[in-house]
Amino acid sequence: MDLSTHGVLPRIRTQTDKIHLMQFSHRALFMQAAFFMLLTGCAGPKPIVYTEEKFDSADIYTRRFPVSAYAACEAARRALLSQGYIINAANANQVDGRKSFQPENDVHVQIAFRVVCAADNLHDNVASIFVNALEDRYALKKVNNSASLGVGALGSVSLPFSSSDDSLVKVASETISAEPFYARFYQLVERYLTNEATLNTELFELPR
């Protein structure tokens, strides 16, 4: 009896092919799942920024001086001026300054510096200054502008030529947390505090 004539062998082959196909599909799904788990394990969870805020007793952003709050802020103002900072505003308790840098042809960096002075006792002969420096980074980007022409009832018609303008776009903003950066500033403030003229100079307020 010829099995192929009655379709027995074709049915067996078909069933065998189905079994092989199912096994291949299961292996493919298993490999995809394993690959996905591998990628997930390698990438890991993204760090959350605020988890780095420990609120410990580090004195990176503050320093005490045996002077009045006014004298501390005046010394801070002079320290910033001596380093090329533009003073945006200054009074007896706060100084705001900024300075621009251009490390590369198409990169612009600006540091915004803020100093807040607070008396530590009722006699105002010991003061703490709280310092914060914010670094903003800008990149030069090209912006394409297409020309348009108003034509009566037709409205605005775009012309087949355009121009490109260069503009600075903020790409990053971060508080400077480098301890040596602030340590150099504190040393300069202390130098100005040793000058008696600093303690006796009347503070004048600059317009915002």
Give a concise summary.
This protein is an alpha+beta fold.
Description:
This protein has 208 residues and is of the alpha+beta class. It is built from four helices and six strands, in the order H-E-H-E-E-E-E-E-H-H. Helix 2 (69-82) packs across helix 3 (179-193). The longest helix is centred in the N-terminal third of the chain and has 36 residues, at 8-43. The protein is flat, with a radius of gyration of 34 Å. The N and C termini lie far apart (105 Å). Mean pLDDT is 77; it is low at 202-208.
Blueprint of the fold:
Layout: H1 8-43, E1 62-65, H2 69-82, E2 86-90, E3 94-104, E4 107-119, E5 127-151, E6 155-175, H3 179-193, H4 196-200
Helix pairs in contact: 2-3
Protein name: Lipoprotein
Organism: Herminiimonas arsenicoxydans
Pfam family, one: DUF2242
